[in-house]
Amino acid sequence: MKDTLILGIESSCDETACAVVRNGREILSDVIASQADFHEQYGGVVPELASRMHVDSIYPTLEKCLSDAGVTLKDIDAVAVTYGPGLVGALLVGVNAAKGLCEVTGLPLIGINHLKGHIAANYLCFPELEPEFLCLCVSGGNTMIVRVSGYCDMEIMGRTRDDAAGEAIDKIARVIGLGYPGGPKMDKAGQGGNVNAYSFPKSHMTDTLDFSFSGLKTAALNTINQTRQKGEDVDIRDFAASYQQDIADILLKNTMEAAERTGIDKICLAGGVSANSFLRKAFDEEAGKRGIKLYYPSLKLCTDNGAMIASAGYFEYINNARADLDLNACPSLSF
Ligand code: KG4
User: How many domains in the chain?
Assistant: First the structure.
């Protein structure tokens, strides 16, 4: 059977990323122009500046991704692009680049939900992985448990009712002076720390698989303020370890409950926070005890990249999904 090559384009936040993927599983090229170092001085992503930087880097990134893959647009079968959720100005750059390419070449256009892209990152790392499985999708803006019944057939079983786990980590990282991007810095700061040194209330709602992180975040803020008011220092290593462990425990509890309810014994992690070592360790241990097969992407594929969009695009392509050239950016696209 002829190979299918999908060009994936991602620009939902502060990474301009393009990739070529063969048959949804094999990365031929994966180019990422990250703006993280630039936004560090502001303590977070400045949306307008992010959009302008995407404009500057989109075509060089596209050209490099085609040349790294050793292909031209003539070899590509379809263009897949993230059209939401994300920052509207940032999304528009990728969407318009993809539409321009499709207009000129006549290639089919496929609109991809960013979160479905994160889930597909697992297909790139595990060639044998097939639905059905549960996926804990944890990123800077979203936290949800998804039942993946087919490549294009997914339903949300539980989601956060307030903050995303990544947001809860980033905010506290900033308050304890770790800076931006908070997630990886908090992870590093907590290595070797005592996970029981600090304890925070962990909300658990009965009869639902939904999450809530705002109470935990507020309790952490109160602990920091009260310690400082007493003229004492927060032990950053122990604090970071305890806080991340509590977040991991909350995520683990509901995901395992979803596995019990459905009888599904395959679990994937996806999204930026799935790079977190406390989360990975908690899931590794529990999955081992329960005989559950656990998958999580390589560190590079946990955060935003074009390859995951191309992979998700492949499965949509063979399912005959096509977008019109009036595809628009949807900053709050639902799942
Ligand atoms: O999936 P992603 O790259 O972008 C979104 O779609 O949101 O996720 C970004 C989030 C940020 O909150 C970042 O701090 C977090 O992922 N993150 C981590 C780690 N690496 C990235 N959080 C905890 N530990 C990490 N090692």
Answer: 2
Q: Which residues of the chain have pLDDT under 70?
A: none
- 237/169 same-domain check: yes
Mutate to test the pocket of ligand 1, among 114, 303, 309, 333 (most ligand atoms within 8 A of CB): 303
- The verdict on residue 334 lying in a domain is no
**CB-neighbour burial class of residue 201 (10 A; exposed 0-12, middle 13-18, buried 19+):** exposed
Smallest CA separation from ligand 1 atom 3, residue: 303
The CATH number that applies at residue 72 is 3.30.420.40
Domain contains 323: no
| Residue 146 and residue 86 in one domain | no
Q: How much distance in Å is there from the Cα of 70 to the middle of ligand 1?
A: 31
In the chain, how long is the greatest CA-to-CA distance?
A: 70
Does the C-beta of 157 come closer than 6 Å to ligand 1?
no
> Is this prediction's pTM over 0.90?
yes
Containing domain of residue 25, as a range? 5-121+302-318
The percent of residues above 70 in pLDDT, for the chain, comes to 100
Nearest C-alpha neighbor of 264 from the set 161, 147, 181: 147
Residues 116 and 139 in one domain: no
pLDDT digits (tens, 9 = 90+) for 242-269: 999 999 999 999 999 999 999 999 999 9
Atom 22 of ligand 1, nearest CA residue: 183
Q: Which numbered atom of ligand 1 lies nearest the CA of 244?
A: 23
